[in-house]
Write a structure and sequence with these properties.
The protein has about 325 residues and is α/β, with parallel strands linked by helices. It has one domain: TIM Barrel, CATH 3.20.20.70. About 30% of the residues lie in helices and about 10% in strands. The longest helix is centred in the middle third of the chain and has 14 residues. It is globular, with a radius of gyration of 19 Å.
């Protein structure tokens, strides 16, 4: 795989500083039941990285003191980690809002038949990857059969109460482009998704659009196809300063499976640690009762992926502006 960080380090991206922390995003490991082409984590079935109970307890100790209100759990497929249910239960008991970045197909794997009901029981908000509403595009990006499995999983979630009126159980979907271009209008694409999935009797709350990051598997593919520089130019030409106000790295920290801390999941994949004086690779234990407000964010050229066009973050578009 081609390394992308050497191509991203030199940057003129604007300086960014932190606001008050609201969200702790925890990556439980890089093992996944899929190997998607757009995956910025380079996750897959053969990855061995996985969070231990000891590290999960450090995460919970931090959550008790940091003032954040949201635990955002990701992977890989986070449900594959032995600590997933433990973290969800304990964070729920602390009164936190828990979010699960789910690939949907995991809900159909052996030993996960009760996962939809578990998530509903603890009122976990689901952010589900669904890169298109067309079968051919989903299967091309995620593997043959992924579309049918995703449809089956969404039906399970609807049956468990997700996206049903009055349930309060939230099911949001995530769209990623299938190639080196920016996502279309989130508002318009959401209407298309809802129209198509209603035909299947499937319901969801919102659609989030995310730009593909020029790192890991997707970035390596761009290099192999000699498209890396063109894609970077696209991101830079579509940059909007207004999106800097709402980028996720201002209110979120990303914790890896070993407990090391980054400004975002993308920086985690590039091994760009959160800047902390005297700590070249800060661990979550270094942050207990530590206020990060005003701390600088580690930046590189990939940050343009979050500010191009309508913007892109873990919560979807940052503005209603149209991509160029």
């Amino acid at each position: 795989m081609h390394a992308t960080l050497p191509l991203l380090k030199e940057t003129n991206f604007p300086a960014v500083s932190r606001l008050a922390l609201t969200t702790v995003q925890v990556n439980l490991g890089y093992r996944c039941n899929q190997s998607c082409l757009h995956c910025h984590v380079n996750a897959g079935p053969t990855r061995k990285e996985t969070m231990s109970r000891e590290t999960a307890d450090i995460v919970l100790a931090y959550l008790r003191n940091c003032g954040a209100t949201v635990l955002d759990v990701t992977g890989g497929a986070p449900e594959l980690n032995d600590q997933f249910r433990y973290l969800v239960k304990e964070a729920h008991a602390l009164g936190l809002h828990v979010m699960d970045r789910c690939n949907l197909t995991i809900l159909n794997e052996p030993d996960f038949d009760d996962m939809a009901e578990f998530l509903a029981q603890y009122r976990v908000e689901i952010i589900a990857s669904m890169p298109c509403y067309l079968q051919e595009n989903v299967d091309a990006q995620r593997g043959e059969g992924a579309y049918a499995s995703s449809i089956e999983a969404m039906k399970k979630l609807n049956t468990a109460g997700y996206a049903q009126e009055g349930s309060g159980l939230i099911l949001n979907l995530v769209y990623n482009p299938t190639g080196p271009f920016l996502p279309p209008s989130q508002f318009q694409l959401q209407a298309d998704y809802k129209r198509e999935f209603t035909r299947h009797g499937i319901f969801f709350n919102q659609l989030f659009t995310l730009a593909n990051m020029p790192i890991q598997r997707f970035g390596s593919t761009l290099i192999s196809k000699n498209q890396f520089e063109d894609y970077m130019q696209l991101l830079k030409s579509a940059h909007l300063d207004a999106n800097l106000d709402n980028v996720m790295c201002r209110t979120l920290i990303s914790v890896d499976w070993q407990g090391y801390v980054y400004d975002c999941d993308f920086n985690q994949m590039l091994n760009l640690p959160l800047p902390l004086r005297g700590k070249p690779r800060p661990h979550l234990q270094d942050f207990i009762r530590f206020d990060l407000t005003g701390n600088p964010v580690a930046i590189a050229d990939h940050c343009y992926g979050c500010t191009a066009g309508q913007g892109s973050s873990c919560g979807g578009a940052l503005s209603e502006g149209e991509p160029k």
